[in-house]
Write a structure and sequence with these properties.
The chain is α/β, with parallel strands linked by helices. The protein has eleven helices and twelve strands. It has a single domain, classed as Isopropylmalate Dehydrogenase (3-Layer(aba) Sandwich). It is 39% helix and 20% strand. Helix 1 packs across helix 9 and helix 1 runs parallel beside helix 11. It binds 1,4-dihydronicotinamide adenine dinucleotide.
Length: 349
């Protein structure tokens, strides 16, 4: 069987890393027809728009997207110029993609690897981040020259939906504990609501241990004892910050995969950005996007192939002979990719 998957190569290091990921998924033995759906700078150079309607249509139709990182800046004019239902505005291309595809959950499983993660080698946690609201909803204004304000918007509907995703994920993946992260002692009306909703949903899952922690205490605990966490469910901004913290503990942003889920579409992308400082140098770590590709395979129902990719990455990292610069090695992105492809052939999932 051949799957059809949309691919948006992205900006900066994106094109190098999407090519690497396509090569590895091919080596994992899954046949995929890649349908180009450009967004970002490449799309703007071709048609003058960073978020072309045609690319969105392709993504909606296929329902599965592999996406390289994008330079996330305010869209020029913020508009989807050729959208049939009229002009809509988005704070950035990334934000626009999530909104247009109705993606509400950003899933970031972050784990350590021996020997590259040092004392965090045993860390194994999953961040389930709400991405439709909170302080990133783009409701922001200048009150005067010396004062700006932004709205932190939390709804019960979105909080219950992300909580249900987190608990269902925990059940499906054999995880034992879900921890809600908040600052409800200060933000009663917003984080307090989020926490109440997560508790309400959690009560329906007696087989899963439900906990909660304040975001500052959670950061401290993650550094001191990451084993305290299993699945974490968070509002948008805390999820953004804690996933980078977890990636840093694991050893590099280049190790942390990600996926975005909605009811009808799923988009797989690395946790890191477009890294313009190293774009085109051939030294970026491709592992984050490759592991996102493994999540894509799981989503397609090709769990065995997904496991093969994860085992291959683990093998290359544990041998520590072919390591990219961010993990202290000298290997190029292509050398790391080739090593993972060879390992794919050796491992049995
Ligand atoms: P970044 O994640 O692109 O880079 C931060 C640092 O990590 C840089 O020193 C970079 O060289 C390094 N780095 C990142 N990925 C790496 C990899 N795979 N291998 C080796 N080193 C890697 O974050 P930054 O610099 O804040 O943002 C750059 C652009 O990316 C911005 O426009 C930002 O908004 C955007 N961005 C896009 C995201 C997305 O598309 N999902 C997510 C985060 C940022």
């Amino acid at each position: 069987m051949t799957y059809r998957v949309a691919v948006a190569a992205g900006d900066g290091i994106g094109p190098e890393l999407t090519a690497a990921t396509q090569q590895v998924l091919d080596a994992a033995g899954v046949s995929i027809e890649w349908v180009a759906a450009p967004v970002g700078k490449a799309a703007a150079a071709r048609c003058g728009e960073e978020l072309p309607w045609e690319s969105l249509e392709t993504m909606r139709e296929l329902g599965v997207v592999l996406k390289g990182p994008l330079i996330a800046e305010r869209l020029s004019g913020g508009a989807l110029v050729r959208a049939p239902e009229g002009t809509r505005t988005h704070p950035s291309v990334n934000n626009g993609l999530r909104r247009e595809l109705d993606l509400y959950c950003n899933l970031r499983p972050v784990r350590g690897f021996a020997p590259v993660s040092g004392r965090y080698a045993a860390m194994d946690l999953v961040i389930v981040r709400e991405v439709t609201e909170d302080i990133y909803s783009g409701i922001e204004r200048s009150v005067n020259e010396d004062c700006g304000e932004a709205v932190k918007r939390i709804t019960g509907q979105a909080s219950r939906r992300i909580a249900r995703f987190a608990y269902d994920y925990a059940v499906r993946c054999g995880r034992r504990r879900v921890t809600a992260i908040h600052k409800a002692n200060v933000l009663h009306k917003t984080d307090g609501l989020f926490l109440r909703c997560v508790r309400e949903v959690g009560a329906e899952y007696p087989g899963i241990l439900s906990e909660d922690r304040m975001v500052d205490a959670a950061c401290y605990m993650m550094v001191k004892d990451p084993a305290a966490f299993d699945v974490m469910v968070l509002p948008n901004q805390y999820g953004d910050i804690l996933s980078d913290l977890a990636a840093g503990l694991a050893g590099s942003l280049g190790l942390a995969p990600g996926a975005n889920f909605g009811e009808t579409a799923a988009m797989f992308e690395a946790a890191h950005g477009a890294a313009p400082d190293i774009a085109g140098k051939g030294i970026a770590n491709p592992i984050s996007l490759i592991l996102s590709g493994a999540l894509l395979l799981d989503h397609l129902g090709e769990r065995e192939a997904g496991d093969r990719v994860r085992s291959a990455v683990e093998m290359v990292l544990s041998e520590a002979r072919v390591l990219p610069a961010d993990l202290g090695g000298t290997a190029t992105s292509q050398e790391v990719t080739d090593a993972i492809c060879s390992a794919c052939e050796k491992v049995t999932a």
